[in-house]
Structures are given as C-alpha cells and as structure tokens.
Design brief:
heterodimer; A: mainly beta; seven-stranded mixed sheet; B: mainly beta; four-stranded antiparallel sheet; about 0% helix
Chain lengths: ~120, ~110
C-alpha cells in the first residue's frame, strides 16, 4: 500500500523559512517522480514543484522560483521542500504526490497534507 | 501557462442524477488531462488519468472523455458520497495546472 506522510508545517513569520518532508513507503521510491501541490484557504489546487526519480530534474512554478528548493533522499525514501522568504500568500496545505511519469503524468497518490501558515 | 477552465463552478444535484463536468484547455494538451476528487478535509484522489483511463479502485460510475482542448467527467447515477470538489489537471506542459474546481452539493 502506497503511503505518503508529510510533516514540517507550522506557523512562521513573513520572511521566515520552513522545511517540509514527505516520507514514502509501499513503493520503489526512486522509480517515481514526486511533486508538491498546495491548496490555499478558499482556493483550488496549485502545483508548486516536481522532481524526477533520481533527482536529476527539478521544476518549479514561477511564484516559488528562487525561494523554494525541492530535493529527495532516495536512501531515506523522503522528499523535501525547503521554503525560504515565505510570504502570507504561501499559506496553504501542502501535499506531496507521486507521479508515474517524469513530472509529466497524473498524480496517482497523495499524502494527507501539512499546513503552513505565514503570519506575524 | 495552460489555463484550464471548468464548468460549472457549482452544482446542486440529487442522488441517481447524471452529472457532467467539463474542462476546457487554453491550448491542446493531447490526452494529458486527469481528474481528481477532493472531499472536505481530505486529500485529493485520482479518478481518471489520461482523459479516459479509470484509476484502480474507482467506481465504474465515473468516466472521462475528450482530447485536445475539451474534456468531460461524467458521473452516472450520483451517490451521496460523491459530494466533493472535482478538479481537472493537465500534465502536458510545465507548469502543471489545475482547473478552478467544480463543487458538487447533494440535495
């Protein structure tokens, strides 16, 4: 059974940093691209970033370029999102999602999400 | 960036009714169009991938069709448990984009 478990969310001040983690199990982690998708309060889903299975390719939405960094540790079956220079508009539930094609497919499985609140 | 426009944005429906949700892309996405269901306080779940392929374990009342720029999600014989927000998603071009969502309310 595929399981994705996010952690690391919380309350942070504008300009601050957070590191999200997504622990994966139930599948061969290094064989799958992974993505971060967020949902802000009262809004729809928004793709944030994706990374290929071996980590050689990383991709970002324009609104996080230069501020967020996606990475993975395949030896630990864990996906990360380093978020710097956080803004109020980054407040959202952040989900990790498995992608069967190299950041070019459907998101077959999703974690339960972790809430990030950016506020002073 | 490819813009996905869903319609309707909201629909109130009765059980056993047939529901059709459309998703129009601002440029062709081929068949790289997928549908998700998100219930309140839950994470999204994949229903249909590549326009018309049902994902494992999804009830047969859910089906998808279309290609290029126009796509449809159909729910036959709606059940009370189908109350949720439905999203389309394109993976043809980066950045991935989602439709704004269609909220289904069960009367």
């Amino acid at each position: 059974e595929v399981q994705l478990l996010e952690s690391g969310g919380g309350l942070v001040q504008p300009g601050g940093s957070l590191r999200l983690s997504c622990a994966a199990s139930g599948f061969t982690f290094s064989s799958y691209a992974m993505n971060w998708v967020r949902r802000a309060p009262g809004k729809g889903l928004e793709w944030v970033s994706g990374i290929t299975g071996r980590g050689g390719g990383t991709y970002y939405a324009d609104f996080v370029k230069g501020r967020f960094t996606i990475s993975r540790d395949n030896s630990k079956n864990t996906l990360y999102l380093q978020m710097n220079s956080l803004r109020a508009e980054d407040t959202a539930i952040y989900y990790c999602a498995q992608d069967v094609a190299a950041v070019a497919g459907a998101f077959d499985f999703w974690g339960q999400g972790t809430l990030v609140t950016v506020s002073s | 960036e490819i813009v996905l426009t869903q319609s309707p944005g909201f629909q109130s429906v009765t059980p056993k009714e047939k529901v059709t949700i459309t998703c129009r892309a601002s440029q062709s996405v081929g068949s790289s169009l997928h549908w998700y269901q998100q219930k309140a306080d839950q994470s999204p779940k994949l229903l249909i991938k590549s326009a018309s392929q049902s994902f494992s374990g999804v009830p047969s009342r859910f089906s998808g069709s279309g290609s290029g720029t126009d796509f449809t999600l159909t729910i036959n014989s709606l059940e009370a448990e189908d109350a949720a927000t439905y999203y389309c998603h394109q993976s043809s071009n980066l950045p991935h984009t989602f439709g704004q969502g269609t909220k289904l309310e069960i009367k």
